Amino acid sequence: MSETCTTTLRLKNLGINTYKDAILYIRKDCNVCAAEGFEVQTRVRVNFKGRSLITTVQIIESDLLTYEEASLSTYAWSYLQAQEGEDLFIFHHKQLASLGFVRSKLYGHTLSQNEINEIIKDISKSRFSDINLSMFLAGCVGGRLNGEEIFYLTNAMLQSGSRLHWGSQVVVDKHCVGGLPGNRTTLIVIPIVAAFGLMIPKTSSRAITSPAGTADVMEVFAPVELDLKSMRRVVEKENGCIIWGGTVSLSPVDDVLISIERIMDLDSEGQMVASVLSKKIAAGSTNILIDIPLGPTAKVRSISMANLVKAHMEAISRKFGIETKVILSDGTQPIGQGIGPALEARDVLAVLSCDKNAPQDLREKALLLAGEIIEFSPTIQKGEGVKIAHHILESGQALQKFQNICLVQGGFSEIPKAHHTHEITAVSSGIVSNIDNRRLARLAKLTGAPHVKVAGLEILVKLDHFVERHQPLIILHANSLEQINYALSYYEIESDMIKITEMISR
Amino acid sequence: MSETCTTTLRLKNLGINTYKDAILYIRKDCNVCAAEGFEVQTRVRVNFKGRSLITTVQIIESDLLTYEEASLSTYAWSYLQAQEGEDLFIFHHKQLASLGFVRSKLYGHTLSQNEINEIIKDISKSRFSDINLSMFLAGCVGGRLNGEEIFYLTNAMLQSGSRLHWGSQVVVDKHCVGGLPGNRTTLIVIPIVAAFGLMIPKTSSRAITSPAGTADVMEVFAPVELDLKSMRRVVEKENGCIIWGGTVSLSPVDDVLISIERIMDLDSEGQMVASVLSKKIAAGSTNILIDIPLGPTAKVRSISMANLVKAHMEAISRKFGIETKVILSDGTQPIGQGIGPALEARDVLAVLSCDKNAPQDLREKALLLAGEIIEFSPTIQKGEGVKIAHHILESGQALQKFQNICLVQGGFSEIPKAHHTHEITAVSSGIVSNIDNRRLARLAKLTGAPHVKVAGLEILVKLDHFVERHQPLIILHANSLEQINYALSYYEIESDMIKITEMISR
């Protein structure tokens, strides 16, 4: 691709974090602006020592920069490994062909494998702006990708990252489609399955907009930022691991797309299927269990959407020679008691330790999922899996395995506690008639989760429970009273996040 | 809408121009970030002295700000009329209901008048981020708005701005759907129609991504930034005016949407119809002539798209009691010789002065359009309009009227000339078989247009012309040799923007 190099500007780091949007900051009176009609929103290519990136121009109208200087957003800066005082080369760039395919999708056309490959390649090379990404996602949403296109997308995403190979015929994995706070079954399922003897190398995500991701919870116990070599060492020794997926670069395009989807609270079923499967196939899995929690405030909100996702997942997996089992679960309320890294870790440890006060819903769900995965083993009959899972949990093997995994990952830590707690009580008595996962997640974030590991909340009631007036509903945990107050001021205007309906007979 | 006020930060102006994207810049260690989980991409509401705006958080990771300070992008700064050193109030904000409607549209649902009103209201109050806007536009594109929805959208856009009323029963207007460089008929049509005696209060746009908008060309002759009162004075005295629409705030939402559409080179026919009609109806027009140039590098590229736009325009106009006539014209090449404000002004003046060397295509098209508009007059027979237009032009009345309009708008200036010109010649002889409007526009921008009024280019050939080797094709105009060279380096890699096909018989 021939492009005209126009000029160089001297790099100065302003340190502006725009997430993944690559921005070039220049002055209006710098030579490229004046001469070439570069202006706000122009897309230009920049080069630094052999690395190249397409950026969006924003104009500095103050003395932050001189007319000979340029800056980059932190993402672009680290992508290019830029250095202060060095020259940045600035180029005109030709319109990306892939944007034509995005346009074509928006106009209702079907995309070919090559066209989807081009789009994903450009996204993986950070050539799409946030606006370009939004348009692509909008083109995928609402059933606009057919089965073939979802397969192409899975394939393209798979090829955009690295791919793991294990020396085992059966490599199992699990994934939850998400949206349910506290749903931390992974930390229970992995040790059970690994103790049983199946290989389960699990990569998890950190929270993006939620109060805790599985990787954040695991990090309460043990390091999770392992490279591929260390991951391999853990899995070879213990059959399983629970690490952060960010360091091993499987399907890197996914993170970029998710960051935009979350902003719009959009879930494209095609994008979801391609995203999950590409990550799991890249991780070397042969058998995958997918959990789709279903509920009005979960990620998947209708049975028709759930069934569509299930059908696509199963069909596309078969094309890749992978077995995928999809189960639909109750997504009407959080699982377990805690929301926030340390509080969820506490629930996990209670279940693994067979503590009588452990949340039963978390325990039962983890056993069910572990049982289904164990049945991927060719020697296990249908219905036997859950019994085996029970036995491994109750005999203490699961706890032992979990501690071993933690130790090999780098250490097994105690769960820390918050400095402050605050009880929220019921203002009237009645029946818990609705629990809003999304607003509870937001409340937990206001206490400081996931950045503050000990922050979050405990939910003391479940749907259909009867509560008395003044009975505690939620305990907030935070490291400062200020944070407790932030959360409380949000709770005040959203106090029906746990809805209590008075009973007429009273 | 109750929202929790969280904290205040002291304002510091960093002067970062992000076009219309409202950005709040804060430090990661400022109290709102740490305490409330505000992070990059979080949408928060800010208040300054009674004015309120929803902004997107970006994080400053350097010492540009202290942890007690905040900054705003230049758009947000001027919207709020912010002042350095004063306190900015920062609030949590509830998710906009209108984003739910955008989502619903993306999932294929039909929107009601109320839902579209909510979306347009939120856009007009700058509550949508660029990502939100992209999603909305993506939902409108590719025939996803039905006739009812386009009517609702027109209605909503109409109500978002001010609306003019004139003391005349017939108020005419013209609009060109655009995409054609040099197509500056407006400056010829308005004086002809005004001299005929019809009221034609014309508001025009400045260039957004093109090398010249009608307002930019008019500004070569006379001031165009007139307020409503001055506009009224011009129209009452001369029957017509040609001013920049930006100062009179008709359909303000439109500019915001167009800025995103241009980035993706997207044209939603529904959005286009609503945008044009809402502006014209807001301007008080009773009879509107719409010109749709049709060609592979024009804005409308297919006859089916053109007919769809035509049908919608006519049907929706009728619902508002307005008569709209749509004509399709040749959009396969630029009109006139000049591209760039001063060079287009020169073409216009040549036509108005009945100069023998005036571009005949511009003259003929302007006469045709003027004739069609004159026939909106109830006393004029079909076919008579163009004859009247001819007479008004040739008798010198049009030139006189144009000069009068300029004088009442604030003065009639001479057309300035560029310091440097450079001829581009044909590398081989043959037939001009293709002219690319888009790349010619880009080339003109590289010389400095529209910011440098005298910059731009002249095209010396038309489609199907025979050219000899070394015959001049283009003359570049610029104020510096550097700018000539920028344009030339672009021309070198895109030299088939004027395609010359050798003839086989030779």
UniProtKB/TrEMBL annotation, chains A, B:
Q: Which PROSITE patterns does the protein's record reference?
A: THYMID_PHOSPHORYLASE (PS00647)
EC category: transferase
Q: What is this protein called?
A: Putative thymidine phosphorylase
Q: Which family does it belong to?
A: Belongs to the thymidine/pyrimidine-nucleoside phosphorylase family. Type 2 subfamily.
**Does the record carry Signal as a key word?**
no
EC number(s) per entry: 2.4.2.4
Q: Which UniProt keywords apply?
A: Glycosyltransferase, Transferase
Q: Name one Pfam family in it.
A: Glycos_trans_3N
